[in-house]
Amino acid sequence: MRRKQVLRFAQDDNHYVMAMSRITSGAEHDFAEASSAPRALLRDLIDYAGLFPPASLPMAQAVAHYDSYLHSEWNWILGRFIVPVARIGEFEETCSGLPRTVGTDLAKWRLSVLLGADPGPDVERIRQFSHRMAAVESVEVKVANAEEIARLSKIIPVDLATYFEIPLFDSAACIAAVAECGRRAKIRMGGETADRFPSAANVIEFIHLCAASNVPFKATAGLHHPLRSVHRLTYQPESASAMMHGFVNLFIAAAFVRAGMQSDIAVHLIEEQSEEAFHFDLDGVAWHQYRLSPGEIAEAHRAFAISFGSCSFTEPIADLRTLHLL
To answer: How many domains are there within the chain?
Structure first.
């Protein structure tokens, strides 16, 4: 007989209370195996950015970590390895010194490259690198305005998935330009200081504009934890703390917005801090009275809310396990 876990949340004295029920039908499995909703949400979700703050790992350590994650039980959650174009040579040199078994697997690595100030030569470097080492799956570039998006789109090959990190104060014009060029958008969700975290309203405005223009997006920074909560901003002992956005909040909100949720309601979802407010079961996920099927989650993840970059892979995994989503 197999036993499957199903999480449910019952309402008691006007508070949501978590309860655990078990359906007997075989060997015990964790919740992620019992429900397809968490897998639909989490598959390929975390792009590893160990080279970047606040981790700022040396290349050799970041490469070794990514390789170990590729061979872990959570490899289905792992997305791309993010590397700046200026460090491609260092990446190549580091990989050439890896054990043969690792080097053989490099063709399976998924890479996303951050472009520099001069994309023309950068694109050529990427093309040559892809012939020598491993295919680059996507590129990411920070822009200042819509005009820059149009200019760079003429330089970057159309077959290379491109994420433009846009300024949120000009999100409407920039997302319109991204849509016109058939590219993708990128939102920065935090940083090493509290002022780098956008408001929930700004996040939902970005998502709504992307959904209205059918523009896929990814996120970066400040998303180490599944739910909105207060954490230290860096790994330094003296680091200040601040309220951080949660990646479960973000990607569930994106799926709901894509399905038609009103912006004012979605803002409350982004601001949700209670784990008891989210209900994952065999039929999908619910937040209060709103529900998505596993298919709706999977389609939103595949075609709309793609991934997020994080300098840690182990922190999100540990929190997901604590929440019984793994």
So the answer is: 2
